[in-house]
Fold:
Amino acid sequence: MALSDRGMFAFSTESFEVEEGDDGATCCLSQAGRYRHSDSHMRRLGSLYKLDLAMTELCIGRQEAGEPVMTMLYIFQLPVA
Structure:
């Protein structure tokens, strides 16, 4: 499936802060068994696929065991031709 002109691709990932000394870390597995992805990794992937980053927002994506799970929302867009 392809995006149409100026098409947008929106998704969210659980937030993952890269620790000092973890150079190159792109993701980790949470205790709940869900993958978390670093912001720098998501931005690199967008760039790799030639998508412009239209928006990011840190938000509470869901609750787990009564605790908020921080999630990063991404919207990528095809560049203007």
